[in-house]
Specification:
By secondary structure, this protein is of the alpha/beta class. It is 28% helix and 25% strand. The chain binds zinc ion.
Length: 406
């Protein structure tokens, strides 16, 4: 989709979704009325920011006040196919429409094709992921074996018996199954493609799946509330946003959209007719990249998951996260222990990187390299302080906020 066509498409469904929520979902209407907005006030991508973000952490209370869905469901109970229960508890309806999670786009980009036979090892109790992914696989034309969690030997036996070409589940469990097959003397399983999630996928593990086992391995990003909003393509350089989600990266405190390239909270509006989540704050952090992807897709990409919004510290107007601190240090060899201290001097925030150096490492040059890495990763100027080994306590917070406000 060209950018103009994408905007037309997204603003088209946004207007319908808002109108539907206003008419059928009292919870949506209450939020809009509280912000003094009518059904015609949220018709463009920019105008969306006028509606305050609804935080995931608010959902349990909102639902308790108007059970079971907090007034966010647009259809009567008799049209609900399933009710999922996520920790909180938060209840999510699965309504009449197929593919409400938009997972098929990501699965297809991840290599799943009609005729694939797929074992789905995600959890089937209470939570939506396994069920929604099954539906998406069916929409593509795949056959699903709902094997669920655990029972490693059964997984191996089943995967061989049905000649499973696809795997869905956590990356660590995929490795467990592959090893189990070898241990049972059955050799290689017939998997060709895997969609993994619910935990981090280290590049070393992905390389092992792809090079040793020949399994094309991709991942996506989603939550129980909003479905799958981003997925990796063949390039695996970030995750493309789906056209049925409007993802804004926002200031976790004010909900204001941030300029491109800044780290912020993922706030999603999803084209889900049964359960319209409009400006839903996931509490997860990311950075969005609008540069062109060599795969040919024109959609923007989420550059990975950057932690939780409740762990961020705001420094001179920019958010910093413990994972960025790790990223800075990873770019410079020779640092053994480190901590960022945020302080105030003459009413200015000061960012200090305290580092201990590994044995035999010369301090000269390291500070300059670290300062450059801080500028690149955090978009901030920071100063570097080399401290004697043992000065940073083992249990020290990675980002220590020592600012005093009076
Ligand atoms: Zn791409």
């Amino acid at each position: 989709m060209a950018p103009a066509a994408r905007r037309r498409y997204q603003e088209g469904w946004l207007r319908e979704l808002v109108a539907l929520g206003w008419a059928k979902a009292p919870g949506v209407r209450r939020r809009m009325e509280a912000a003094r907005l009518g059904p015609n006030d949220l018709s463009s991508l920019e105008s969306l920011a006028r509606l305050p973000v609804i935080k995931k952490s608010q959902m349990p209370d909102l639902q308790k006040a108007d059970p079971p869905f907090g007034g966010f469901c647009t259809v009567p109970m008799k049209q609900i196919r399933k009710i999922f229960v996520s920790p909180g508890p938060i209840f999510e309806p699965l309504g009449p429409e197929l593919g409400a999670w938009h997972a098929e786009t990501g699965l297809y980009a991840g290599g799943f094709r009609p005729g694939d036979v797929v074992i789905n090892t995600f959890l089937y109790h209470l939570v939506p992921a396994a069920h929604e992914i099954d539906e998406a696989l069916n929409l593509i034309g795949c056959t699903v074996v709902p094997t669920g969690v655990g029972n490693t030997e059964t997984q191996v036996v089943v995967a061989r018996a049905v000649q499973a070409t696809g795997y869905v589940g956590t990356p660590s469990f995929l490795m467990t199954i592959l090893k189990k097959a070898e241990e049972m003397g059955l050799g290689r399983l017939p998997f060709e493609v895997a969609q993994v999630g619910a935990e981090a996928l280290p590049e070393s593990l992905r390389r092992q799946f792809e090079e040793e086992y020949g399994i094309f391995t991709r991942q996506g990003f989603g939550t129980a509330d909003i479905g799958l909003v981003a997925y990796e393509c063949v390039e695996k350089s970030g995750m493309h946003l789906v056209e049925d989600a409007i993802v804004q990266v926002c200031d976790p405190q004010t909900g204001e959209p941030l300029p491109d390239g800044q780290i912020g909270e993922i706030v999603a509006t999803v084209n889900h007719r049964t359960y319209p989540m409009i400006r839903f704050g996931t509490g997860d952090l990311t950075v969005i990249d609008h540069s062109k992807c060599p795969c040919g897709r024109t959609s923007a990409r989420m550059l990975g998951w950057r932690g939780r919004a409740d762990e961020v510290t705001k420094v001179r107007g920019m958010f910093i996260h413990p994972r960025q601190v790790d990223e800075v240090v990873a770019r410079v060899a020779g640092v053994s222990r480190y901590q960022v201290v945020v302080s105030r001097q003459d009413h200015q925030d000061v960012l200090t990187f305290r580092v201990e150096l590994a044995e035999g490492v010369e301090a000269a040059g390291i500070a300059t390299k670290l300062e450059a890495a801080i500028r690149e990763v955090m978009k901030l100027r920071g100063r570097v302080e080399v401290v004697p080994r043992g000065s940073i306590p083992e249990a020290a917070k990675k980002v220590a906020d020592e600012r005093k406000w009076d």
